[in-house]
């Protein structure tokens, strides 16, 4: 939840993250699991109380990869409308990419042009632009999808890792062909996989968004963190104080996706951003000339 002033600047009132794993099993079954829909309902019920308490004037509920792919997406939409009072907008991968780009680059100190990558659970968005979006594509690689598809061991075996890497590399190459492989772009990484890798690379003893935001993480550090995560069990990953409990089982795949992107683009570093699709959605939900929440 945020206030937006007349100049279009966002001021957070509250920023909450709950990992509900809506896409759990979708890659295998093509359907949203009833337990996953219920986890979303519980989270939305808490959000609804908070929205009412703070007097939100406009609410936008955006649903992404899992709800695009699922055969029973209507069950999810009905639940959201009953719980939140607002129907979910199941956006395209292209719109998801554009919202992520907008949220990430406003106020960014690193100069453009940019390649923004948003590594989600079911998909990853690639967006190229400077002051605005020039090209964008969404592809079906994400930390949950790749874990469920390939990384079944705890920790995963070398064969599982090799299969995941080959799958990710082929998909990343297709994405880069779609957005163009031109050089001179700053690589900006969004979402929890990237920020967790950044926190681990920085050696933080607690999750500190202000230190993570706009941190420059080298390709060598990303490769080291990725190897450490893929070589560790879920229990061992949970020993890191910056690790969100809901991310520990899929962070290896998320880090692998980031590492492969850096290898295929030749990027020597990634800039981690704490501003992402949430900020883009907030910007899109208001008329910039009007102060509102």
UniProtKB/TrEMBL annotation:
Domain Ppx/GppA phosphatase N-terminal: start-end pairs: 7-286
Keyword Hydrolase set for record: yes
Record's keyword annotation contains Hydrolase: yes
Keyword annotations: Hydrolase
Protein name per UniProt: Hydrolase
Matches recorded under SUPFAM superfamilies: Actin-like ATPase domain
A molecular-function term among this protein's GO annotations: pyrophosphatase activity
Species classification: Bacteria, Bacillati, Actinomycetota, Actinomycetes, Micromonosporales
Protein's organism: Virgisporangium aliadipatigenens
């Amino acid at each position: 939840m945020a206030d937006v002033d007349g100049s279009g600047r966002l001021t957070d009132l509250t920023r909450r993250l709950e990992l509900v794993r809506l896409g759990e099993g979708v890659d295998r079954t093509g359907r949203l699991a009833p337990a996953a829909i219920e986890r979303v309902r519980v989270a939305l019920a808490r959000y609804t109380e908070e929205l009412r308490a703070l007097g939100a004037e406009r609410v936008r509920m955006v649903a992404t990869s899992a709800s695009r792919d699922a055969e029973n997406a209507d069950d999810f939409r009905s639940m959201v409308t009953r719980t939140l009072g607002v129907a979910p907008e199941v956006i395209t991968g292209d719109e998801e990419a554009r919202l992520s780009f907008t949220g990430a680059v406003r106020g960014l100190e690193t100069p453009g042009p940019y390649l923004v990558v948003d590594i989600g659970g079911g998909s990853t968005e690639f967006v190229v632009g400077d002051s605005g979006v020039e090209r964008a594509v969404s592809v079906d690689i994400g930390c949950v999808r790749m874990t469920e598809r390939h990384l079944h061991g705890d920790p995963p075996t070398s064969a599982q890792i090799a299969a995941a890497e080959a799958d990710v590399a082929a998909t990343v190459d297709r994405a880069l062909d779609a957005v163009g492989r031109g050089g001179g772009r700053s690589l900006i990484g969004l979402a929890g996989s990237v920020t967790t890798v950044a926190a681990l690379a920085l050696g933080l003893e607690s999750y500190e968004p202000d230190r993570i935001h706009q941190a420059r993480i080298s390709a060598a550090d990303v490769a080291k963190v990725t190897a450490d995560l893929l070589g560790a069990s879920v229990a061992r990953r949970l020993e890191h104080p910056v690790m969100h409990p809901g991310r520990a089982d899929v962070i290896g795949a998320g880090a692998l996706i980031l590492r492969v992107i850096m290898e295929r683009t030749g990027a020597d570093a990634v800039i981690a951003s704490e501003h992402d699709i949430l900020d883009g959605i907030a910007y899109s939900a208001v008329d910039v000339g009007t102060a509102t929440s």
